Amino acid sequence: MKPANRYHPLQIVLHGLMAVLMVATFAFGKYVHSLPLSPAKFQLISYHKWAGIAVLALVLVRIVLRLAKGAPALPGSMSPAARLVAHAGHLLLYVLMVAIPLSGWLMSSAYGIPVVMFGLWQLPDLIAANPELAPQLGQLHGLLNTVLLLAVLGHVAAALKHHFIDKDGLLSRMSLRG
Amino acid sequence: MKKALLLPLAALLAAPAFAQPVDLTKSQLAFTLKQMGVPMSGSFKKFAANVDFNPAQPETGKADITIDTASIALPTGEASAEARKKEWFNAAQFPQARFVSSSIKALGNNRYQVAGKLTLKGISRDVSAPFTATAQGKTLTVDGTLPVSRLAFKIGEGSWSDTGTVADNVDLKFRLVLVNP
Questions:
Q1: Which of A124, B19, B65, B66 is most buried per CB count within 10 Å?
Q2: How many Å is the maximal CA-CA distance in chain A?
Q3: pLDDT band at A1 (very low <50, low <70, confident <90, very high)
Q4: Complex ipTM, two decimals?
Q5: pTM for the complete prediction?
Q6: Of B166, B170, B146, the residue nearest B158 (C-alpha)
Q7: Under a CB-based contact definition with an 8 Å cutoff, are residues B74 and A111 in contact?
Q8: What chain A residue is nearest to B42 in terms of C-alpha separation?
């Protein structure tokens, strides 16, 4: 069977949706972190947590789809080294998309401030409250986000290279059009 | 001889009504509140309690609890620092909060109701809370929850008075471990 030349439409939609959601959640998180405590900060932290849990839920759907539907073949012109870098980069992005919301959730649990999705559904605490561990998980959350920032920049740079330098039509894999 | 017997008796009678020691290391004054629908707990690490309570004669019981407001502890250091500020407990101007009981009634089934005056941030209000008393060996553990309106005591002023973010109701949970009741 010839592999499809593009991702499943649902994969493409999720890719775009998560890109927007992740950029927003990232920027939001950085902003909230810089704010002094205020009612607005409490609200924004809650929104940030909802968005993060949404990312976690969506990435799980994406992982299932990726395993079920696979990915279209990479252009034949890519060297084995470039393929390896592409696969490693994508794997790293998937790991981070799971690890970052999880580290945030763990941090919330450690602080003893549970995540209440949309202010309605309280998620279970992943670990018991632990005041010593909580700030460390916060640091981990920040560190993973720095790695994510670099990984996403690399992802975008690679896409632009394929499109404008290699001109190999790779981006059409992730496009619903044409 | 008679005098020798009478003196300690007189000393006993003259002893303050609040004679029951409270094990502060095992006692707790905690509270839970909701912000954005998220339950959050905190506690007061420093307080003094003068309690006299005998489950057989609850009506004669008394409690006088003084809380060091600056000892408030919340999940984050930032929140603890905020809670000491003017808008919240104003710990600099009102270093102490106090509860003085006025009556204790038996509700049956090992349940009791204490009424009294709670003074927070210079504001006094009559409050009432149910509690249970559990005897174990030489200790008697009193557990109860006092629901309070934080706004009635101006806890959280200015932008913090918006109950859409931090709810008005706060449950004060007290656990007092009385020794040798």
A1: B65
A2: 58
A3: very low
A4: 0.78
A5: 0.85
A6: B166
A7: no
A8: A112
